[in-house]
Write a structure and sequence with these properties.
Shape: globular
Strand content: 15-25%
Strand order of the largest sheet: 2-3-4-5-6-7-8-9
Distance between the termini: 12 Å
Number of strands: 13
Radius of gyration: 23 Å
Order of helices and strands: EHEHEHHEHEHEHEHHEHEHHHEHEEHHE
Oligomer: single chain
Number of helices: 16
Structural class: alpha/beta
Length: 382
């Protein structure tokens, strides 16, 4: 179906009292298993990547595959970046394809960090990315009032709370009361972290009290690890790929169970009707440079532009080109890919763009044409 706005997806889940699963994308096998399950159950789904995922591998090689899989999936998909702890990490995640960001407000609760939290939220919202703020642990004394205060300051679309130790001793009864209190006070979708080991009844009570997104990470990792151990036990000498046999299937089966338990099964069509689709925009500029500017100076200006403009939030790619034919009406081009239409304004007003355009580009490129193009959906594209 499509890559859709996560804030719209969670608003639909919140209104209709079900929860969307956010499943950890720890491998391409997991990616295929999660999407296969979601298409089987006709569920909207969120693919979740953590800051650790960005650190462990060259994520620039992986993300194009993830984005393509999300766009051609048969159900609505969101791409979420978990545990963003600074603005640079958030910008990188958005520029690589994520359209939802979790800001770890639990480490930014002190008054002196409020400006940093606001900057991170504003950066994401300037790119029309959904913003979830992790706002506290329900096991901590006085945490509910702290959560409410931080949530009201954050401007987030959804609010993440940590249940504490759910698996070992079960969730204390007060946690459900706290979730209900937060929901009544804020009336915004809530997100559960640390819910590993909850029962179906626990999940239903949480969903009835405003939980619209459930993060599901540890269980998938544990299942995959056990599968690798079983594969290794079967053969003392095996092909490397044999170690990962069956992971896609066990991930699919687990995700199917979760989506049925959390009530998201069957909502794919309704979500697509009520959610905005994320369409990329190509910002095209064709231009000539002043005749007094030599090829070396032009190349230096273009290289600087690639570096500066490519780092602006919401910019997915910067292509610079020179005409193949020397007699072409325009000799140079910029093709800047934006995450969505909202980035047109935030890019235009970004101080780095303003400075480069006014001091380096426009003075030597008076003869130019600039047009923004929105993607036309192609059902046959792969």
């Amino acid at each position: 179906m499509a890559l859709v706005k996560v804030q719209d997806m969670l608003a639909h889940a919140y209104r209709h009292k079900y929860a969307v699963g956010a499943f950890d994308l720890f491998s391409l096998d997991a990616l295929q298993g999660i999407l296969a399950a979601s298409e089987e159950t006709r569920s909207p789904v969120i693919l979740s990547l953590s800051g650790a995922s960005f650190d462990l591998a060259d994520i620039t090689l992986v993300m194009p595959s993830v984005v393509k899989a999300a766009r051609r999936a048969g159900v609505p998909v969101g791409l979420h970046f978990d545990f963003g702890r600074d603005t640079s990490a958030i910008v990188r995640a958005i520029n690589l394809g994520c359209n939802s960001i979790m800001v770890d407000g639990s480490t930014l609760a002190a008054p002196e960090h409020a400006a940093m939290l606001r900057e991170m939220v504003d950066t994401a919202k300037g790119c029309d990315a959904s913003v979830e703020v992790l706002i506290g642990t329900l096991d901590e004394a006085g945490s509910v009032q702290h959560i409410l205060d931080l949530a009201r300051r954050s401007g987030a679309d959804s609010l993440g709370v940590v249940l504490g130790d759910a698996g070992a001793a079960g969730v204390r009864e007060g946690a459900f009361d706290s979730v209900a209190h937060i929901n009544q006070a804020l009336e915004r979708p809530l997100v559960i972290h640390g819910g590993y080991g909850l029962s179906q009844d626990h999940y239903r009570r949480l969903i009835d009290n405003g939980v619209a997104k459930i993060n599901y990470h540890n269980a998938l990792h544990d299942l995959a690890f056990e599968q690798v151990k079983q594969n290794l036990a079967k053969k003392h000498k095996a092909d490397f790929n044999d170690l990962f046999q069956g992971i896609r299937e066990i991930v699919r089966d687990e995700v199917v169970c979760c989506q049925q338990m959390w009530g998201s099964a069957g909502h794919a069509g309704a979500v697509l009707e009520h959610c905005s689709v994320c369409k990329e925009v190509e910002h095209l500029i064709i231009y000539n440079v002043d005749q007094s500017m030599g090829p070396e100076a032009a190349a230096e200006m273009i290289a600087e532009g690639q570096r500066v403009l490519g780092a602006i939030p919401g910019v997915r790619r910067v292509f610079t080109g020179e005409a193949v034919r020397r007699d072409a009406a325009y000799q140079y081009c910029w093709l800047v890919r934006f995450a969505n239409e909202s980035v047109i304004a935030s890019y235009r007003d970004h101080p780095d763009h303003v400075d480069f355009a006014n001091t380096r580009f426009r003075p030597v490129a008076g003869n130019r044409i600039s047009i923004d193009y929105e993607e036309i959906e192609n059902p046959w594209a792969f």
